[in-house]
């Protein structure tokens, strides 16, 4: 499997710091709202997935436009992996909650 994602961490995330080293202060609700807004902008073709991932994602994969590369089953958190498996290649997920925060996922392979 291969996927790209955008992550919005919140204060209850397992590591509430961004890859840039900033402390996360948003609530889970605020993280969900942020991801929903980004998802709508992508769907409306207002922004490019990779470009907005580089600007907004709290995961270090932001440096690669959100690309997580190829991964084997069992490598990702269960909620994340289940969401990737449910997507067709090229399909964008609804918001997905994991221990890391709230994601939107684009299946790429």
Describe the structure concisely.
With 109 residues, the protein is of the alpha+beta class.
Shape: globular
Instruction: Please compute the radius of gyration using only Cα atoms.
Output: 13 Å
Helix content: 25-40%
Order of helices and strands: EHHEHEE
Tally of alpha and pi helices: 3
Could you tell me the mean pLDDT?
97
Strand content: 15-25%
The major sheet is characterized as: 4 strands, antiparallel
List low-pLDDT spans: none
Distance between the termini: 5 Å
Q: Which structural class should the secondary elements be placed in?
A: alpha+beta
* Side-by-side strand order of the widest sheet: 2-1-4-3
Task: Give the number of DSSP strands.
Answer: 4
Structure description:
- A hairpin with a 2-residue loop joins strand 3 (96-98) and strand 4 (101-107).
- By secondary structure, the protein is of the alpha+beta class.
- The chain has a four-stranded antiparallel beta sheet with strand order 2-1-4-3, with helices on both faces.
- It contains three helices and four strands; from the N terminus they run βααβαββ.
- The chain has helices at residues 28-43, 49-56, 78-86, and strands at 2-8, 67-70, 96-98, 101-107.
Give descriptors for this structure.
single chain; 109 residues; alpha+beta; 4-stranded antiparallel sheet; 3 helices
Write the layout of secondary structure elements.
Layout: E1 2-8, H1 28-43, H2 49-56, E2 67-70, H3 78-86, E3 96-98, E4 101-107
Antiparallel strand pairs: 1-2, 1-4, 3-4
